[in-house]
Amino acid sequence: MAWVWVCTSCCRQLAEAVGPTPAGVGAEERTPLLGPASANQSPGPSILRGPGTPNSGFSCPPNSFVSSDPLSGGHREAGLSAGSKSTWGRGAARASWPTAVLLADLEQDSRQGECALPVAASAGLAPLKPEASQSSSPGPTSCMGARVVTEAGMRDTDSAGPEPESQLPCRNGGQETPERRRGQLLTIPELPAVMLLNGDCPERLRKEDGPSESPRENGLDEAEPGEEATGQEVIVIQDTGFSVKILAPGIEPFSLQVSPQEMVQEIHQVLMDREDTCHRTCFSLHLDGNMLDHFSELRSVEGLQEGSVLRVVEEPYTVREARIHVRHVRDLLKSLDPSDAFNGVDCNSLSFLSIFTDGDLGDSGKRKKGLEMDPIDCTPPEYILPGSRERPLCPLQPQNRDWKPLQCLKVLTMSGWNPPPGNRKMHGDLMYLFVITAEDRQVSITASTRGFYLNQSTAYHFNPKPASPRFLSHSLVELLNQISPTFKKNFAALQKKRVQRHPFERIATPFQVYSWTAPQAEHAMDCVRAEDAYTSRLGYEEHIPGQTRDWNEELQTTRELPRKNLPERLLRERAIFKVHSDFTAAATRGAMAVIDGNVMAINPSEETKMQMFIWNNIFFSLGFDVRDHYKDFGGDVAAYVAPANDLNGVRTYNAVDVEGLYTLGTVVVDYRGYRVTAQSIIPGILERDQEQSVIYGSIDFGKTVVSHPRYLELLERTSRPLKIQRHRVLNDRDEEVELCSSVECKGIIGNDGRHYILDLLRTFPPDLNFLPVPGEQLPEECTRVGFPRDHRHKLCCLRQELVDAFVEHRYLLFMKLAALQLMQQKASKVETPTSLENGSSLSVESKSEDSLGPEAGSEEEGSSASGLAKVKELAETIASDDGTAGHVSTADPRSREVIRNACKAVGSISSTAFDVRFNPDIFSPGVRFPASCQEEVRDQKQLLKDAAAFLLSCQIPGLVKDCTDHVVLPMDGATLSEVMRQRGINMRYLGKVLDLVLRSPARDQLDHIYKIGIGELITRSAKHIFKTYLQGVELSGLSAAISHFLNCFLSSYPNPVAHLPADELISKKRNRRRRNRPPGAADNTAWAVMTPQELWKNICQEAKNYFDFSLECESVDQAVETYGLQKITLLREISLKTGIQVLLKEYSFDSRHKPAFTEEDVLNIFPVVKHVNPKASDAFHFFQSGQAKVQQGFLKEGCELINEALNLFNNVYGAMHVEICACLRLLARLHYIMGDYAEALSNQQKAVLMSERVMGIEHPNTIQEYMHLALYCFASSQLSTALSLLYRARYLMLLVFGEDHPEMALLDNNIGLVLHGVMEYDLSLRFLENALAVSTKYHGPKSLKVALSHHLVARVYESKAEFRSALQHEKEGYTIYKTQLGEDHEKTKESSEYLKCLTQQAVALQRTMNEIYRNGPSANIPPLKFTAPSMASVLEQLNVINGILFIPLSQKDLENLKAEVARRHQLQEASKNRDKAEEPMATEPDPVGAPEDAASQPQGAKDPPSPSLQG
Fold it and tell me: What is the pTM (predicted TM-score) of this model?
């Protein structure tokens, strides 16, 4: 008998459905986290067998060390990964599925296509977009069909989790069968399963979890999700997924699989997306003659059961329904048209993967399977070959043949006769349409309550009477089918193509992604686009202009949703994320409207810079210093920076998420040189003066300060996670006022009674390196490198990441000081505490601390580890004593003294526990502190100086070291900025980072970092100049001004001339003064006189002033020459930073005869948007636990946790998000390692599509995803696809950076190996030899990576029978192995064996040649053995270079390992400070290159073992 598991999103409904719960256990606590099985759980056998049936226990990928069954053959595989991306080996390929099952399933899969029901937004939120072509992500209301598990005494969660498709409407034609959607789950009775309940792993799992143990520092003592569930009951209900029959007019009845938790509206959504019913929008579903309510759940419908017949009944139209229908038809007609993606509207974005894979990989895999060694054309275009100097732009966006859409109609637009006059309204006319068919027939159409028909109106004559043929159709598509044969044919073909596309190519992304290039496109007529432009379209549901949303109410209400258990938290996070992404889109549109001059100011009489605007319930202000507010801080420059700082503050307070404390929705938009801040509006704030409203904080930077007990209480709860110290300041009447934030932070109680905080621009402490204070001396580490420096504004503050790193660093220091003193006490038995003044001997301490990683004391494992454990215990005891004042102390006074000294030394604000916090008001001009706090203020000043020194002495050198070791591999400016910010280093330190790179002993190995850094420095300086340059340009001169700027910046043409916009038209009289012009736009042509020399001089000056770095170049050509930059890369960087979109064509940057850009080449300018990114906390927690499991080698559990994370991410973010992309990549890697290539391919394909859509088609992350996909394609014998993917990755990399990058070595090794596999030896050598050169440069000639590279080259030479070259390369490799690993290491031995083998072949060849010379034609020639590489050996090499490794184990090794694992497990219980890297076999490797062979290599060895290590 089968049972069903219910996914979390159904818990609410479940509580009602299931009987009374046992005492003490809430319904939600017993709900398993397992989501439904995906609809197309691809090629694993989706055939369910009960324990009694034959073949019930399929062999399955081994699940690492925890399973008790010894594997057959004594082989056990573990994988290691590169780059912390994932781990495991490919070994489980041998544990393959029974072929009969597999093939049947594959066939079924390919027949069925993807099918699942979508989930609409929860009833509480507005319904999703009514058109289905972009069916948006699901809400948390229902589960996608139940999941069947055979009752075999265990429940396996092996392939838990829906893939994102399972949340999309059904895409196939009519062949939907009930069997298809039945729970598809493989059961493996003999393996122990891991049950996950409500975020609660079983004990065994929880003990091993690394990251998941860290307390959630959010100021609330909120229980971890894992602490709620007490028992591990599973709610089970009868399998209730069932199929219903759908009867729609005009087509054959078909059946549809549904789940009782779905809503009726989801069936509507499916029908609106199905190929044969997609043209209907206005219908209802009837069961036995009763109409079903749109928003009711299927299980609440009486009489609905297996086999019920639902009838589709056409409903009469209203104006709203008619407009929805026309919009839907237009969307269907445009469903393959990429123009929305190029124009950056409606959250559409580009994806090109399908061009390189020829459609869907899963299907083509089956087609190509038999053609393994068919001739493939492997020659890449010339510009992809190593050494090519050409960097074309056009291949970036290859033209997709589907994009030349089949033209169904020439024009579909609203008629000029709208709206219908009163007498026609009374006949049921709703609106009129005008259509020109593909055959050039012009017709007028009436939309009436009964449907659509032709009328007799013409362009100039109104006649609403029906025209012939007198055909009334309920759907516009049916009417057009009647009157236009071309429409009928093309529309059908278009819909067929639409449903074949991968869903990820068409789902909307949560935030808009803009493309910096676009091809020349025709501008077609589009009624819906035109209508949207003229009415303020605020959401998709409201087609009536003027129905604005109350953003503030929505944002705050979602925050107030309950969050006691997992289902509630999911619902809440989903709602928060949805409202945030809608608010960001609306704010962006509004900001553009403000700058374009389309919004009336609320203070129109003021000068333009000071104007403020309200549009769509959002408040907009410009980044200028209004009323000298920032006079003391740097004027306009400070006013420009403040919104970004404020946004960081909002982001931080949102993350801490304290109940009762509210922040404003905030979005910062940079557009056309202006910075606009968009904020939601506090209820009532516009009716009263700011002075009256503010009841906490200061409105004049600290002169008048007020406080409020409720605010102090709320902010106190944020102070611990944000490291903010509660402090007292003096107001203008010299009274002490207590604050728990910076003085600028204002508290306002809105009319809705909520406590809001705003102006969070100084949430974090000031950065003293850029804030010279008279009379204050910075530490020597700062003064040595020229700090403090004057900056252009005084709002420089440290990043949150830096504050966290600094506090972490101090905590380690605190632990070590205390441990040291305890050991001294123990040794001498005499009290000799080493008292340390704050900051005095710290520098010495911090030096020694550097060498110690986060695992404090890992060197002297025994003594110091136990010492630290004691300190921890002691600190906790004392802290608890402190908390329970009045009790007898359990810690002796000497121990208290130890803790007190350590606290004092590290600057802790408490003397009984470690607690480092910052006072953000120190060094704020205008803030005064009471005399009683002088000592505290002195300590705080010292702490700030230490933090500034820490950034320079630890973080920046740490970054450079990580870059030298290739722990981080930035590829472009954005990834470099990301890497700096993760370490808390602000971009203004970029010059210092580059100085350190220049002085580094490993300067050559940092060449790529230096190039990226210089490029970033130049483009950021150019961006600063461009910002002020654009402010002087009026709208009509925009394209001319931008193309002129780009010419001065990038073109070698010495004197480009700007074309002034007045050339085209002559106006009779110049209108001197226009109202409501965009801010600061004088009739200004000052921009036209800029020259390249002047611009580059300004760039060098800006680089010196802002970044303190001296550029040595006076022109772009000199910069390219001096620093080895690429002009195309600079163009990409400046376009991304400023929002420019240029025409996709080949630019002749180097021509000295004509400028590179004309004004026609600048297509658009987009906003650059900064916003808050709400997180899915539970999902992220699962993801981290999964990663930790994988790193410890527990792959199966890791896989389950990550599947679970994927479910939860989908639940919160919908189907498209950066974090889902990371989840899919890791899942693909795990499936690959466990031998399930098809599943790996399917997941990785989704990861690539998602990366292209969400991050950008040439983002470094997308390049990585392409490389992974190519590996899985090769493993699945899709060789030509693998090559075209690798070529694409190489092209993108050349465009984004160039050839000289350590990652290029890996890419070229991959290409070379695949070419070797298809016997293209000469081509293969070009790539492998380039990889060898790059590896030698970046890893040093003696590195093990270089040895491996030599070996790969030698193998190709061997295949070419050029033994001399092969021997030469293998000798190089052998020498490296011998010097690095010693004679006896197996790598050295393998290399030596291979050398012998090569020598024998060379001798044999020579003999044969001699024989031929001697005996001529009669020579007796023994057949020569030339080795063509086998696919298996090539795949093995590919795995090695990509960091996947298999270790052969004998049965005895296995037993030893199991014993070892058990022993380690006990050790781990005893000491939590265990070093994770010691975990057996699957260690976390050198994050970039290939991993170490944990069994046999010394610590220094960072390179992969040789190819002959077989799994």
Answer: 0.79
